[in-house]
Structures are given as structure tokens and as C-alpha cells.
Amino acid sequence: MIDHSLDGWAVVEKAVELARRGEDFVLATVVWRQGPSSGKHGSRAIVTASGELHGWIGGACAEPVLIREATRALADRQPRLLLLGTTDELSQVPEGMTHIAISCQSDGAMQIYIEPVQGAPHLVVVGHSPMAQTLCQLAIDLNWRAEVIDGPEFTTANIDTHALVVVATQGHGDEEVMEQAIAGGPAYLGVVASRRRGEAILGYLADRGVPQSVLDRVHVPAGLDLGHTSHREVAVAVLAELVQLRAAGAFISDHAAETTTQSITTDPSKAIDPVCGMTVAADRTSRPLEYNGATYFFCCPGCHDAFAKNPAAHLPQEATC
After folding, report:
1. Which of 150, 167, 208, 292 has the highest local Cβ count within 10 Å?
2. What would be the CATH architecture of the domain defined by 122-250?
3. Integer Cα distance of 18 and 310 in angstroms
4. Measured in Å, how far apart are the chain's first and last C-alpha atoms?
5. What does pTM read for this prediction?
């Protein structure tokens, strides 16, 4: 989905809304332009983990490139400075920029800074001990969304696939709480318990038919091993593990690993312009050109002509022995 209705501060407000909901996204800002590029200084857009674009950064050729590069930025958690323009512009690109030739921008060019943003995690601590309260408060201090729910009150409805769940019921209905938590499919599920008690809980769940692949994802005992710690200090160990996993990208949505290109290639009515990466209709309106037994489609005469002059420059290089 592409939504051009947002601009200016409305894009920033949308970014804040997504972050508070715990959704990952990329914020893109035009930091430089050279006419006749349609992008303007300060234009902003958001690309979500599912490939949705909100806002406006430039014309139709720039958008698919932005979505593709934003997906990569979400996957590796690295910001990028893109230079979109003609071959002449690319000859003077400073080191560190990602440069992409887009012939359909005529003589225009732009630089877009794209920054991956991790949404605030949603931590659900199940239990009522001092450790549970401490863990919740520590997470709030990090601007996470955190809440403590007593075991009997916890249900699958309290979580979703983005939630981080820490079960700290300490023998009070552990098994029932774990069944509810597993059914919700959270991004993280940990149990504050001894290793022996944890094995007993996992054994119970296995007997109830929970697949081993699911049980293998349960962190028992939850938290980094910080040695002999007090009950409240366990909260620090658990939070440390969550921070470590989050920094490593362990909680990235599965959508972030999917690219718009991959989803389009399964649709026979769509094709990817091999020059600029734009999505086009796979029909006569998209200037078809045959090369080595395959048919390619293009968004404009510029991309068509660039490919016709040097097809090998725009196609993946085959490995040779």
C-alpha cells in the first residue's frame, strides 16, 4: 500500500504512533535535491516492515527503490544515505553513500537519508512478586511499554506476536499461564525459574502436545547469568537479556525479511524494471524488450534505452567456476 496523503509533520506524528504501538519502520528524509527531481528538501516518508509507504519523497521511480532499501535497512538495522540520480551524478559520489542510477529521473537527483526505527517493545510480566514489579519499572524507565498482570488474570488476549512475555508466577499456576502465553505466539517467552523447575514445566507442555520447535524457543531460566543475585536483581538479568536480543534483531517482524520485489515476482501481471527497480505492468504498455530469451519491462523510455545499450550492467552476474 502507498499512501501519499501524509506530508510534513503528519509523517512525524505517524512515526510516533507506530513507535508507541511497537511497530518497526524506516523514516526517510530528502536531505538534498537537484531539479527536476520531484522530491523537495525535507520531504519525509515512512516505510513499514510490511512494505507500506506513507508520505512523499519523490516520483514513481524513487518509491520502489526506497521501499527496497528500507527493507534492507530494517533487516540489518543500519541507516543509509542514498543518492538517486543519473550516471553522471554517480561519478562524484562520496564514499559511504549508496548510489543508485535512476534514468527515469532525467537530469534530476536526490539524496535520501533512511533510518530504521525500532518500536517501543511491549513487555508483559506475569506474576505479582517484587521482582516482577522491579522488571516492569526498569522497562518503563527505558520508555518501553510494560505492564504486570497477575497469573489468574492473564490470557492470550493480553498479548500479540510482538509482545515480550516473562512468566514470573513462581509456582502459582505456571503451567496454565505458559499454555496461554504459547497460544499467543509472542516474540519472546521466558520463565523466571530454576533450571530444574523449568524442565518440569517444559515436560508438562510437551505432554500436552506442544511441538518441540515451540518449546525450544522458550527461555528457561530467563535472563543472562549474572551469578548469585538477589530476587530483585534477577529483574536486571532478565532485562539485560531482552536488551541484548533486541539489539541483535531477534524481535524483528517476519515481514521485515520479505521484500516488495519478492511479493511482486509471484504475480504474473507485474514485473520489475531491471534498471530502476520500479514495479510495472507486464504488458505492452511497459515497453517490453527481449534479451537472451527473456522479456523485460520498463517504466519509461530512459530505462528501456539504458538497458538496451548495456543489458549486462542491469542484470545479476552469474557465478562462474
Report:
1. 167
2. 3-Layer(aba) Sandwich (3.40)
3. 43
4. 42
5. 0.69
